[in-house]
Specification:
The structure is a single chain. The protein has about 300 residues and is of the alpha/beta class. The protein has 2 domains: about 150 residues, Leucine Dehydrogenase, chain A, domain 1 (Rossmann fold, 3-Layer(aba) Sandwich), CATH 3.40.50.10860; about 140 residues, 3-Layer(aba) Sandwich (Rossmann fold). Helix 1 packs parallel to helix 9, helix 1 packs antiparallel against helix 10 and helix 4 packs across helix 5.
């Protein structure tokens, strides 16, 4: 039995194992996707265990370790998004034991916003709240397409760091950093507002912005997916904003991670398993059933 972990803390909100295990079952694979809820002090020993054992295909990384994990990996150069963002959410364990890092959050966000909201990034103004791993991926996904991106965080130095690092890979991108407590005008002007913080997750009723400043015709994407409708989404919808939660992003980033693990499994085993539309649909249905929704 091979294993794939989800490493993070806390993980009570996560639904990744629901659809990832559905995918492995659909391909009749003896692989188990499991949550690995660890403290920061356990990160090194956990990664060392995975690196030393052929029982693992790899792992996902979530809050709060998407940037911390990079120093423990052997390679992030094979994925330009991992290099640009300085964050990794997917790791593949090679047959040699080397750990290769990828960022599938970037393409996951793009697909979610384009398919769920029908949003065209070209020439738009975007406000991203949160300068953690998710915020880095959001910025990288669209910085070369939009008219401008404002990255806001309660810790301005974190937002400054994203701007500085992103411009190394995208020197022509129009990126600005702001303190999250001083973005009223940016909220009003934005075509798309993205909550890339965990605010609103679980029983948290806080919102990252003053929703009274939102206007009809704007778009809002909340990376939080549990609960399905956060207070932020509820209030935004009441003001005529076109909204989406993070469930579609969860799926798309996970789908691309799944394909990376299958590719490695095929190399090791000599098999030719292919995650086709049937597998894709099985994973979607598992996630929809888990949350009791008709669509992602």
């Amino acid at each position: 039995m091979k294993k794939v972990f989800l490493i993070g803390h806390p993980l009570g909100h996560s639904a990744s194992e629901v659809f990832q295990n559905a995918g492995f079952r659909a391909l009749d694979m003896s692989v188990s996707y499991e949550n690995c809820d660890i403290e920061r002090s356990q990160l090194l020993s956990t990664v060392s265990e995975i690196k030393a054992s052929d029982d693992y295909l790899g792992f996902n990384v979530t809050i709060p370790y998407k940037t911390d994990i990079i120093r423990l990996l052997d390679n992030v150069d094979s994925d330009p998004y991992a290099k640009i963002t300085g964050a990794v959410n997917t790791v593949v364990r090679k047959a040699s034991g080397e750990l290769w890092g990828y960022n599938t959050d970037v393409i996951g966000f793009c697909e979610a916003v384009e398919k769920k909201l029908g949003f065209d990034f070209t020439g738009k103004k975007v406000l991203v709240i949160g300068a953690g791993g998710a915020g880095r991926a959001v910025v990288a996904s669209m910085a070369g397409k939009v008219a401008g991106v404002v990255i806001a965080d309660i810790d301005l130095s974190r937002a400054d760091r994203i701007v500085c690092e992103a411009k190394k890979g995208m020197p022509r991108a129009n990126l600005t950093s702001k303190n999250a407590g001083d973005i009223d005008e940016e909220i009003r002007q934005a075509d798309l507002v993205v909550n890339a913080t965990p605010l609103g997750m679980g029983k948290d009723t806080r919102t990252p912005i003053n929703t009274d400043l939102l206007r009809e015709g704007q778009y809002l994407f909340d990376v939080v997916y549990n609960p399905i409708e956060t207070i932020l989404l509820k209030k935004a919808k009441e003001r005529g904003v076109l909204c989406s939660n993070g469930l579609s992003m969860l799926f798309y980033q996970g789908w691309h991670a799944f394909r990376l693990w299958i590719e490695e499994y095929n190399k090791r085993s000599g098999k030719k398993l292919y995650p086709d539309d049937k597998v894709h649909n099985k994973m979607v249905e598992a996630l929809k059933k888990h949350f009791g929704v008709d669509e992602l």
